[in-house]
Every structure is written in structure tokens, then in C-alpha cells.
């Protein structure tokens, strides 16, 4: 085999988050794919990324990759690629159709169940708008977009943090 094709791990620079003191790799491995890939393809890509040294993974409920990510982490531990989930930095996001104060916690709990985790490192508001609840289709129709009630959504995000379900919270796409 040509040695230039052999996978080797590499060091990705890290940053310490001031809000939590956690170390986060500056380059996260994104798990969104369009067109969509099968869960098995996603899982294998994530396992390969772990082998190469990635420790920061970005997912979202809307991507459909939380479950393959969770399965890949379980397999990586069993293969000895990592010792525990604590070696990883996992980001997931609140989708716009759940961007209502009363829907934030239930969505994070579903995400954690998909990921097979007790917490994520970072929980982000995916986009600063709300969609009709339960809407998970693309393209998004203009009439389904509404302003987000940032106060209630952010308060619910803070509740998730207080409950220990996420270490940090934030906003994506500003």
C-alpha cells in the first residue's frame, strides 16, 4: 500500500472556552450531509475521523446524524480508539421548529437519547428564527418562518445548562 494513503492521527489546535473552562478543538468534524447519507456511512465517517484525531463533533437533530455519532462513539471506545466520551467535545443544535421555550428541553433530551449521552458540551440555537412546530422539511416556506422569542428560548437553554444536560450554550449563524 502507498504510505501516502495510510491514515495517521494529527494534532488539531484547541481553545479553552471561557464560559466553562473546557478545551475545544478549533476544527470540528461536521456531520451534516446533503444529500443525506445512510446512518452506516455517517458512522463509518465518524469512526475514521476519530482514528485521525478529531475530538470535536458537530451534529444537530435536523441532520439525522446524532444516533450514528452516538453509535460511533460507543464503538470507538470498544475498539480502544478513545478511553471515554469525556475525551470528546460534542456540539448539537436546537432546530428552528423547536425554538420555543417549552420545546427546548424535550428536544435536548431526544438528542441526548439519540447520542446515548448524559450531556453535550455545547448546545446551540441553530438559527435565530422559529418555524412552525414539528416542521422538519426543506425547503422552508416563507410563511412558516416567525420571529423567535429569544427570552423564553434562552431561558430554557439556561435551564438545560443548570440541569447538567449541556456544559455550554450559544447561538449559531448570527
Automatic annotation (TrEMBL):
Residues 27-172 form the NADP-dependent oxidoreductase domain. It comes from the Eukaryota. Pfam families: Aldo_ket_red. This is NADP-dependent oxidoreductase domain-containing protein. InterPro entries: AKR, NAD(P)_OxRdtase_dom_sf, NADP_OxRdtase_dom. GO terms for molecular function: oxidoreductase activity. SUPFAM superfamilies: NAD(P)-linked oxidoreductase.
Amino acid at each position: 500500500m502507498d504510505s501516502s494513503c495510510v491514515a495517521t492521527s494529527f494534532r488539531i489546535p484547541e481553545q479553552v472556552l471561557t464560559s466553562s473552562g473546557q478545551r475545544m478543538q478549533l476544527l470540528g468534524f461536521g456531520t451534516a450531509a446533503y444529500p443525506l447519507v445512510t446512518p452506516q456511512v455517517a458512522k463509518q465517517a465518524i469512526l475514521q475521523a476519530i482514528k485521525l484525531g478529531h475530538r470535536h463533533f458537530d451534529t444537530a437533530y435536523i441532520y439525522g446524524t446524532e444516533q450514528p455519532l452516538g453509535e460511533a462513539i460507543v464503538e470507538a471506545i470498544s475498539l480502544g480508539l478513545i478511553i471515554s466520551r469525556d475525551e470528546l467535545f460534542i456540539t448539537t443544535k436546537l432546530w428552528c421548529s423547536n425554538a420555543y421555550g417549552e420545546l427546548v428541553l424535550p428536544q435536548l433530551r431526544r438528542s441526548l437519547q439519540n447520542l446515548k449521552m448524559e450531556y453535550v458540551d455545547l448546545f446551540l440555537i441553530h438559527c435565530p428564527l422559529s418555524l412552525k412546530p414539528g416542521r422538519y422539511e426543506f425547503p422552508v416556506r416563507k410563511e412558516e418562518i416567525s420571529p423567535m422569542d429569544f427570552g423564553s428560548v434562552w431561558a430554557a437553554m439556561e435551564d438545560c445548562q443548570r440541569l447538567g444536560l449541556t456544559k455550554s450554550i450559544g447561538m449559531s449563524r448570527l
